[in-house]
Design a protein that fits this description.
With 229 residues, the protein is an alpha/beta fold. The chain has eight helices and four strands, in the order ααβαβααβαααβ.
């Protein structure tokens, strides 16, 4: 298709609406009259967070102080965020949530920057190597969750993703090699640059990122583009 992600989703909705006997939309982007299936999908995403907490407990690891979540339309990120808010919120140990989006496809960043109780969308050229995150419209349910509970909203250029892929594929010491796609492990690239570059010193301080931090990054895909990888 020559359409971008958001246009493709809308096209699918339009086609399905013309023949409801033949088509059923399975999509995590919600509308005013399409919310049940997106909620089911979000419950599935939340299971990831549940299993993370269980495995950390089982292995006596520290719980995360920070969680980096790639956004896209926001269903995945908001599901993880909501689970942690529900699990940790009452204890006051809620990890700081950092959302991450491509430079040109950052509706969550645009929403946070406006500092209003209204979700923003972005249009135009959404091109990014992080194709799985190249979305300009947020899911409404998820967008409001992230707007309420995330701590920081970050945009990243493609070289951040490239560095993440290289780091994960070339581990140090006894770490396991991880074959990650462009959208999946970009949080690793973000943390590498934030923690090693002097220009991010103020950000580190404000986010309390230091040697005592435990940062959770969830790799959501393997190699999706073998040639580019």
């Amino acid at each position: 298709t020559k359409l971008n992600y958001d246009e493709t989703v809308q096209h699918a909705f339009d086609v399905a609406a013309k023949d409801t006997d033949r088509y059923v939309i399975i999509q995590d982007v919600d509308t005013d009259d399409y919310q049940q299936i997106p909620l089911y999908i979000m419950r599935g995403y939340a299971q990831i967070a549940k299993e993370v907490v269980q495995q950390l407990n089982d292995n006596s690891y520290n719980m995360p102080t920070h969680v980096v979540l790639q956004v896209g339309v926001g269903a995945f990120a908001s599901s993880i965020c909501a689970y942690f808010q529900n699990f940790f919120g009452a204890s006051g140990k809620m990890p700081k949530i950092i959302t991450l989006e491509p430079m040109k496809a950052a509706p969550m960043y645009a929403t946070a920057r406006c500092n209003e109780d209204e979700l923003k969308s972005v249009g135009g050229d959404l091109d990014s190597m992080m194709a799985g995150l190249a979305c300009g419209v947020l899911t409404k349910i998820g967008g409001y969750i992230l707007n309420d509970f995330a701590t920081a909203y970050v945009r990243a250029q493609d070289f951040i993703s490239k560095d993440a892929i290289r780091i994960l594929a070339n581990p140090m010491g006894g770490d396991r090699k991880i074959l990650s796609g462009e959208s999946g492990g970009v949080g690793v690239g973000l943390m590498f640059h934030v923690m090693t570059k002097e220009k991010y010193r103020d950000f580190r301080k404000r986010m309390q990122l230091n040697q005592d931090s435990t940062v959770l990054v969830i790799n959501t895909e393997g190699i999706t583009d073998p040639v580019n990888w």
